[in-house]
Amino acid sequence: MHHQILIVEDDPDQLQNYSDALCSSHYQVRAFDSDQQVREQLDAEPDIALLDIHLGSNPDAGFELCQWLLGRYPDLPVLFITSRSDEIDQIFGLRLGAWDYLTKPVSLMLLREKVAAILKRARKLSEVVSDRSAGQDELESELALDISGARAMWRGLPLNLTVTELLIVEALVNAEGAVVSFDALAQKTRQTVVTNNTLSTHIRHLRNKFKAVDPDFDRLVSVYGLGYRWQESEGGS
């Protein structure tokens, strides 16, 4: 089965070049020149999305489309291809959940290699997640994780966690109260570049999501300069 590639690029020449290059590598391509087209016509999850950021008159359309896509398909690998080279744009794109970020001009050979590498990484992540979930859906009596199904529950109530957040929680709980370093947690995420600030953002989102269903939640503990740990309840799990 050929991989399905979504490309969103408003420059017709670049859109055609990207499409031709990936089709020559035997990928199936769905090409759009606007974010609105994607919202109206996309009817199935692609295997990877290649997004420009500035589309039409909207300089941030690609960022907004990334959020929309990941809201529908949380595991979707996203690769930004854009002329915006500022570091802040790259950081923002990665924090949104993109797997990688390329600045134009991009050689077609590099594009093919990037797509192949991301698809390979996505396949390996899926295999690892599947193996870990077998026989280990529930890691703590109060916490239930279904990694392969991208679901989590806390004290019987559903949590709306991303795959990255699920993997972070799994790593912390498996450490059995030990501190998990920033580097170790970064390796658990699917992103190419992960900073301590990015991890702090994930942890903040996790705390907010747990507290939304349990205002007294206090299990995620920051250990200054070292990382994070999962604090067991009094009397054990």
Features:
single chain; 237 residues; alpha/beta; Rossmann fold; Arc Repressor Mutant, subunit A; 44% helix
Walk me through the structure.
With 237 residues, the chain is an alpha/beta fold. The protein has two domains: 4-130, Rossmann fold (3-Layer(aba) Sandwich), CATH 3.40.50.2300; 135-230, Arc Repressor Mutant, subunit A (Orthogonal Bundle). It is 44% helix and 20% strand. It contains eight helices and twelve strands. The protein has helices at residues 12-23, 35-41, 61-72, 87-96, 108-133, 163-174, 182-188, 196-213, and strands at residues 4-8, 28-32, 48-51, 78-82, 100-103, 138-140, 143-146, 151-154, 157-159, 180-181, 220-223, 227-230. The strands form three sheets. A five-stranded parallel sheet has the order 2-1-3-4-5, sandwiched between helices. Strand 11 (220-223) and strand 12 form a beta hairpin. Helix 1 (12-23) crosses helix 5 (108-133). The longest helix is centred in the middle third of the chain and has 26 residues, at 108-133. The chain starts with a strand and ends in a 7-residue tail after the last strand. InterPro entries: CheY-like_superfamily, OmpR/PhoB-type_DNA-bd, Sig_transdc_resp-reg_C-effctor, Sig_transdc_resp-reg_receiver, WalR-like, WH-like_DNA-bd_sf. One of its GO terms (cellular component) is protein-DNA complex. Residues 134-232 bind DNA. The modification 4-aspartylphosphate is found at residue 52. Keywords: DNA-binding, Phosphoprotein, Transcription, Transcription regulation, Two-component regulatory system.
Q: How many strands, which pairing sense, and closed or not: the largest β-sheet?
A: 5 strands, parallel
Radius of gyration: 19 Å
Number of strands: 12
CATH architecture of the largest domain: 3-Layer(aba) Sandwich
Helix-strand topology string: EHEHEHEHEHEEEEHEHHEE
List low-pLDDT spans: 132-140
Average residue pLDDT: 86
Summed up, the domain count is 2
- Output the CATH homologous superfamily of the largest domain: Response regulator
Q: Report the top-level CATH class of the largest domain.
A: Alpha Beta
The termini sit apart by 44 Å
Helix content class: 40-55%
Strand content: 15-25%
Determine the CATH topology of the largest domain.
Rossmann fold
The total count of helices amounts to 8
Domain OmpR/PhoB-type: 134-232
Modified residues (4-aspartylphosphate): 52
Domain Response regulatory: 4-119
DNA-binding region: 134-232
